[in-house]
Amino acid sequence: FWVVPAVEVKIEVVIPEKERSKEEMSPNGKASPLIYKVNGTARHYHLEEHPIASNPYHNPKDVVEASVCHVKDLENGQMREVDLGCGKALLIKESGEFHAVGHKCPHYGAPLVKGVLSKGRVRCPWHGACFNIGTGDIEDFPGLDSLPRFQVKIEKEKVYIRASKQALQTQRRTKMMAKCISLSNYNLSSTNVLIIGAGAAGLVCAETLRQEGFSDRIVMCTMDRHLPYDRPKLSKSMDSHPEQIALRPKEFFCTYDIEVLTEMQVAAVDVKSKIAVFKDGFKMEYNKLLIATGNTPKTLSCKGKEMENVFNIRMPEDANRVVKLATSKNVVIVGASFLGMEVAAYLAERAHSVSLVELEHVPFKKFFGEKVGRAVMKMFENNRVKFYMQTEVSELREQEGKLKEVVLKSGKVLRADVCVVGVGAVPATGFLKQSGINIDSKGFIVVNKMMQTNIPGVFAAGDAVTFPLALRNNKKVNVPHWQMAHMHGRIAALNMLAHGTEISTVPYLWTAMFGKSIRYAGHGEGFDDVVIQGDLDELKFVAFYTKSDEVVAVASINYDPIVSKVAEVLAAGRTIRKRDVDAVVFLSFRTGDMSWLTGKGS
């Protein structure tokens, strides 16, 4: 904190060691141990201790300070991207106070100045991640890192920012985490927290535990051969190698004592004895369990489904192999799912031909509605993708052991060197059938708002669960979104530590095809009408999905940041009625007026 004359603003990066809350600090400035009960026994765990320096910068030469504007240049509720010479910061004024944080979203680098400011946080315009403007901490996902926070000072009616050059360059900050205090003393077949699955939910759970100061053993296990990676890129950026899409480097897991067992499949869970049994016979005891196994792609049931060059894209190697084999060849994609459509878009310029087979008459009809689906379909047709709708595959034919033709039930025969199957997925929960964990008729694990199953100490998260969605009056839903998996993992971790935190996030997803991004927020299952503003033919529109006169979801192309703005409205507990749609578009998109975000009710 700077003691300065009134009215000049400066910003200074606050390093993670200085960001501990008062509750975590003892009077002498050292970390106070926190207590976590393991098997009924109180154990202590604490954050890594660092000396608290009077100057938060290790190297004064790394500091830059600049005057960025006059105090009257920003009104309350406004944001401005400001240049400090060696990097930029996001300057924000809310409730009469100035704040400064990193200007790019750490997820994919979106400019946050184009995002949504509401009630002390800024929401990314691209994928909906939210950051606290006072601390820079990430509050909603996707992404793992927080924003760097800078110090602001006002002098003589000028706003100054003081910042670390390094933070201005990286535009991200990893929260301080604990380490395991006595890893060498553990039995290899026993862990405090076992996480089955190493996707977004599993990784965020492990990181959250460490961020909250948990210093006991954490083991993640996965059938995959890789450390956690950015799975959406498997269909959006198919030639990406595992190390290019890794969510964290190997060193990260070593530093924070998060053990990852790769190519390890759990075959059964004994919840009474608290033991996970692996396929190879290895057994591991646990105290707390998170099941985040995701889903398993459906396969074709027709003749020839097992032949070479027929792919379900599950791992980076699958995507890489498809790109290599498809170049200048004939590709058939079965299923106009998100994966199928993204793969078709990615291969359209690389393959000789791309054909897409789908049982429905319009892609995405159940999700985006017929009008939006037709607009997307037209975009694909303009990019040389040929659709074969209202039919399915009856046979795959080979020549010398390799795929040659795809035969449709309509009688059409398609030339095919490669076939990609994207006909949906089922929850990967078969190993739990005899466990006593509550599984619904579709195979999803049933959890409450705290991601708890019916078995004490057993949590579940991600694509394999159904949970109460606050947005839809706590209806039990399955939301297989990347963003939602992150939040599930965080909520599960907090409740392993008995925080009593309930999930209340608004679902947010995106897809990218031919340079166009479709953004979507809410949960539109069962919508009965679609109100469209803009031009579908020009692919510049926003679609509001309504059920019984209430907006339950929104989608857009080239209409940023309206989806993020509506997400903030829904997150605040407000109801948007069908009659309000025109006003919502006008106030949010054309005037930038955010006053309609405040308050409850319609």
TrEMBL record:
<comment type="function">
    <text>Induces apoptosis through a caspase dependent pathway. Reduces mitochondrial membrane potential.</text>
</comment>
<dbReference type="GO" id="GO:0016651">
    <property type="term" value="F:oxidoreductase activity, acting on NAD(P)H"/>
</dbReference>
<dbReference type="Pfam" id="PF14759">
    <property type="entry name" value="Reductase_C"/>
</dbReference>
<dbReference type="GO" id="GO:0097194">
    <property type="term" value="P:execution phase of apoptosis"/>
</dbReference>
<dbReference type="InterPro" id="IPR036922">
    <property type="entry name" value="Rieske_2Fe-2S_sf"/>
</dbReference>
<keyword id="KW-0813">Transport</keyword>
<keyword id="KW-0249">Electron transport</keyword>
<comment type="similarity">
    <text>Belongs to the FAD-dependent oxidoreductase family.</text>
</comment>
<protein>
    <recommendedName>
        <fullName>Apoptosis-inducing factor 3</fullName>
    </recommendedName>
</protein>
<keyword id="KW-0496">Mitochondrion</keyword>
<keyword id="KW-0408">Iron</keyword>
<dbReference type="InterPro" id="IPR016156">
    <property type="entry name" value="FAD/NAD-linked_Rdtase_dimer_sf"/>
</dbReference>
<dbReference type="Pfam" id="PF07992">
    <property type="entry name" value="Pyr_redox_2"/>
</dbReference>
<dbReference type="GO" id="GO:0051537">
    <property type="term" value="F:2 iron, 2 sulfur cluster binding"/>
</dbReference>
<dbReference type="Pfam" id="PF00355">
    <property type="entry name" value="Rieske"/>
</dbReference>
<keyword id="KW-0053">Apoptosis</keyword>
<dbReference type="InterPro" id="IPR023753">
    <property type="entry name" value="FAD/NAD-binding_dom"/>
</dbReference>
<keyword id="KW-0001">2Fe-2S</keyword>
<dbReference type="GO" id="GO:0005739">
    <property type="term" value="C:mitochondrion"/>
</dbReference>
<dbReference type="InterPro" id="IPR028202">
    <property type="entry name" value="Reductase_C"/>
</dbReference>
<dbReference type="InterPro" id="IPR050446">
    <property type="entry name" value="FAD-oxidoreductase/Apoptosis"/>
</dbReference>
<feature type="domain" description="Rieske">
    <location>
        <begin position="66"/>
        <end position="161"/>
    </location>
</feature>
<keyword id="KW-0274">FAD</keyword>
<keyword id="KW-0285">Flavoprotein</keyword>
<keyword id="KW-0479">Metal-binding</keyword>
<keyword id="KW-0560">Oxidoreductase</keyword>
<dbReference type="InterPro" id="IPR036188">
    <property type="entry name" value="FAD/NAD-bd_sf"/>
</dbReference>
<keyword id="KW-0411">Iron-sulfur</keyword>
<dbReference type="GO" id="GO:0046872">
    <property type="term" value="F:metal ion binding"/>
</dbReference>
<dbReference type="InterPro" id="IPR017941">
    <property type="entry name" value="Rieske_2Fe-2S"/>
</dbReference>
